[in-house]
């Protein structure tokens, strides 16, 4: 036993017991040197470990067809009889592609444990790292691959971790599937025998699924065990849940092995991204709380800083960015109470439409003869911060950068290059490309008082070769991106960054540790957005979830929605405004200003509070959720109904996790409700007419 409470080595059993809030995780060194997984679930004591070691319900003896190793090993390596989903596969210089790793030692430092596995024949190690985040009940895992030999090793598959789950009679999986403009849709299915494969092969996390998965054996919002994993990786990824016919389940999570050939030169190592795992015995509400707390305390930069009310010009002016119209938008945005004004795509040289300009991060001289400084200063005079849109990883063929460096992109010498949104992808695997980007962005940020960047990417990685760097582009591109962002942030520590990839194509824990918030979707239709936000909030904290109020009808769906509903929908996250304010009526502008004021009154609660989905009480077409302030002093309850059905004029919503003895006062009507009444009977919320929405603010009486 060590000093650490979170991690214990139990020498009598050669076992490890990792414990955080509400969970324990245990494994031991087996007689053959392999690491045998023992437990991931509710908290256990050191005295329980002997029983875990003695409990082997699936001892199949010599039956090779049902060999259970893949479901009980800490890291499932390719080799021997492990014919299920494996986490690690390499090729040694002599062509051998099987691993034979055995425990060689461990090190405990504070809340971190590193266990070294060494190959029995080759000078090759896999170091499994575990870090307990005790308060949130999160376990972070990653794996370092070390080539200690004199010959190269090629890594063909390198997941961050295998996660064996305990036996349960049935499993339900919840994940966030979607597509462009319909990201993060909550998807729930019973798992059958076989594999659930969630992945991206696009070089970014993508719109089709988030690198996040939750598994339960029949949990609800407030009850039941849930296990969940999320990967901190902004490139291609893969999460596999493999369920054997007899109910054994294990999850493998990491970078995608699609087209992966990662050379490890002699004497070098590579560390996988972190995969975080959460266990709760208290249902999906508690799972959400744990992920949110984890993002706030251990992932997001500036975790305690209130996010500003944003204005973004994209849907107002698209590529027609001119200083006069931007200033007019800025005046109106400031009048509404916006605090950050971001000029989106279209401000830089040659950018009249999609066909040109990406790569040249200098203002268009025709429209901005004196650079961006005059506009930025005017925005500052209006009392707002100033930001601009960039897409640093891409380059237009029609750009000065591409003409100067046509070899800086991913391409195969003998194959056509794939254009996507009329751009190529710069090879951030190459140091000179990274240096160029840092210099260009530094130049831009130094040229004017720029406080924020919207960092976008609108194409996948296709031709996976930069012609120079031998390492895998799938890995090097993401690591290169992280380096560029880190260097830019170090040079300009005051600058805020929004992460975007054609909407919500890049919203993983890796990019979120480097950006203040994300743009979850290009779909700003306030009704569609509710479903997108509902899913997003499963995995991510509301203080990372930007949402704009745009024009009605919106340009993507052509749906008309009243201003009030649009504001209420966007107020569930980080309120932004993205409409063409030049066309808004005086009444609309006055209404908008009132909503912004109201949002500022509740935004600490919304951004940093405890979120509850209140669907269970609501009819199918009603969306409802509540936010409770971190100190419990304020509640914001939102409800939305797209159309009148069955003579409905109100919904009764039972709130959760209040103090039953406290009194909560409606900030608008003065009505007083006990916590007990709100939880056990409910709050009656009016929803009258089509596109009805409500925001009820309740203050806890002193
Ligand atoms: C895609 C983003 O998601 C949009 O918000 C906008 O910034 C465009 N790119 C600009 O090209």
Quick rundown:
By secondary structure, the protein is of the alpha+beta class. It has 13 helices and 38 strands.
Description:
With about 700 residues, the chain is an alpha+beta fold. The protein folds into three domains: about 5-60 and about 65-300, Beta-galactosidase, Chain A, domain 5, CATH 2.70.98.60; about 310-610, TIM Barrel (Alpha-Beta Barrel); about 610-700, Immunoglobulin-like, CATH 2.60.40. Helices cover about 20% and strands about 30% of the residues. The protein is built from 13 helices and 38 strands. Strands 6, 7, 8, 9, 11, 12, 14, 15, 19 and 20 form a ten-stranded antiparallel β-sheet that branches. Strand 29 (about 545-550), helix 11 (about 565-570) and strand 30 (about 575) form a beta-alpha-beta unit. Helix 7 packs parallel to helix 8 and helix 10 (about 525-540) packs parallel to helix 11 (about 565-570). The longest helix is centred in the last third of the chain and has 23 residues, at about 585-610. About 55% of the residues are buried. The model has no long low-confidence stretch (mean pLDDT about 95). (2R,3S,4R,5S)-2-(hydroxymethyl)piperidine-3,4,5-triol binds near residues 314, 344, 458 and 519. The site of (2R,3S,4R,5S)-2-(hydroxymethyl)piperidine-3,4,5-triol has 11 residues, from loops.
């Amino acid at each position: 036993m060590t000093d650490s409470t979170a991690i214990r080595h139990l020498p009598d059993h050669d076992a490890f017991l990792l414990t955080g809030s509400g969970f324990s995780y245990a494994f031991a060194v087996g007689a053959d040197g392999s690491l045998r997984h023992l437990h991931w679930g509710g908290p256990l004591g050191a005295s329980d470990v002997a029983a875990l070691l003695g409990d082997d319900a699936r001892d199949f003896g010599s039956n090779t067809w049902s060999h259970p190793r893949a479901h009980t090993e800490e890291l499932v390596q390719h080799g021997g009889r492990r014919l299920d989903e494996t986490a690690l596969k390499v090729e040694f210089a002599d062509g051998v592609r099987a691993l034979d790793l055995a425990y060689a030692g461990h090190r405990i430092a504070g809340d971190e444990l590193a266990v070294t596995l060494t190959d029995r024949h080759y000078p090759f190690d896999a170091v499994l790292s575990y870090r307990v985040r005790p308060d949130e009940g999160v376990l972070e895992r990653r794996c370092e691959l070390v080539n200690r030999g004199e010959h190269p090793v090629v890594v063909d598959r390198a997941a961050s971790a295998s996660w064996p789950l305990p036996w349960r009679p049935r499993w339900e999986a919840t994940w966030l599937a979607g597509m462009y403009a319909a990201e993060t849709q909550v998807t729930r299915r019973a798992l059958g025998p076989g594999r659930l494969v969630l992945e991206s092969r696009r070089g970014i996390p993508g719109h089709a699924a988030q690198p996040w998965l939750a598994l339960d054996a029949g949990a609800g919002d407030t009850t039941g065990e849930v296990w969940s994993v999320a990967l901190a990786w902004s490139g291609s990824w893969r999460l596999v849940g493999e369920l054997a016919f007899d109910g054994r389940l294990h999850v493998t999570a990491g970078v995608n092995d699609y087209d992966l050939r990662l050379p490890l030169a002699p004497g070098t190592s590579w560390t996988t991204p972190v995969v975080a795992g959460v266990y709760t015995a208290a249902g999906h509400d508690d799972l959400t709380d744990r992920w949110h707390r984890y993002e706030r305390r251990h992932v997001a930069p500036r975790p305690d800083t209130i996010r500003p009310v944003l204005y973004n010009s994209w849907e107002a002016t698209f590529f027609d960015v001119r200083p006069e119209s931007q200033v007019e938008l800025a005046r109106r945005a400031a009048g509404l109470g916006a605090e950050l004004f971001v000029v989106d795509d279209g401000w830089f040289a040659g950018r009249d439409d999609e066909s040109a300009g990406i790569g040249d991060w200098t203002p268009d001289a025709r429209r901005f003869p004196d650079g961006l400084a005059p506009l930025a200063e005017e925005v500052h005079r209006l009392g707002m911060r100033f930001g601009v849109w960039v897409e640093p990883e891409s380059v237009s063929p029609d750009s000065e950068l591409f003409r100067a460096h046509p070899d800086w992109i991913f391409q195969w010498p003998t194959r056509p290059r794939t254009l996507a949104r009329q751009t190529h992808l710069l090879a951030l695997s190459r140091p000179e490309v990274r240096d160029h980007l840092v210099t260009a962005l530094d130049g831009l940020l130094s040229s004017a008082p720029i406080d924020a960047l919207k960092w976008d990417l609108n194409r996948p990685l296709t031709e996976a070769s930069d012609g120079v760097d031998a390492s895998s582009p799938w890995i090097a591109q993401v690591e290169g991106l992280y380096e560029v962002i880190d260097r830019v942030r170090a040079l300009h520590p005051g600058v805020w960054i929004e992460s975007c990839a054609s909407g919500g194509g890049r919203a993983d824990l890796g990019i979120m540790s480097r950006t203040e918030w994300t743009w979850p979707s290009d779909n700003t239709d306030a009704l569609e957005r509710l479903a997108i936000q509902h899913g997003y909030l499963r995995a991510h904290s509301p203080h990372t979830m930007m949402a704009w109020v745009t024009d009605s009808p919106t340009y993507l769906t052509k749906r008309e929605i009243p201003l009030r509903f649009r504001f209420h929908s966007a107020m569930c996250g980080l309120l932004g405004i993205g409409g063409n304010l030049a066309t808004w009526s005086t009444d609309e502008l006055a209404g908008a200003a009132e909503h912004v004021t109201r949002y500022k009154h509740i935004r600490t609660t919304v951004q940093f509070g405890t979120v509850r989905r209140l669907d269970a009480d609501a009819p199918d077409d009603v969306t409802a959720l509540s936010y409770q302030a971190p100190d419990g002093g304020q509640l914001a309850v939102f409800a939305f109904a797209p159309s009148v059905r069955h003579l409905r004029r109100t919904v009764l919503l039972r709130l959760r996790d209040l103090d039953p003895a406290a009194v909560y006062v409606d900030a608008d009507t003065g009505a007083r409700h006990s916590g007990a009444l709100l939880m056990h009977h409910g709050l009656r919320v009016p929803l009258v007419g089509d596109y009805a929405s409500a925001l009820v603010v309740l203050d806890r009486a002193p």
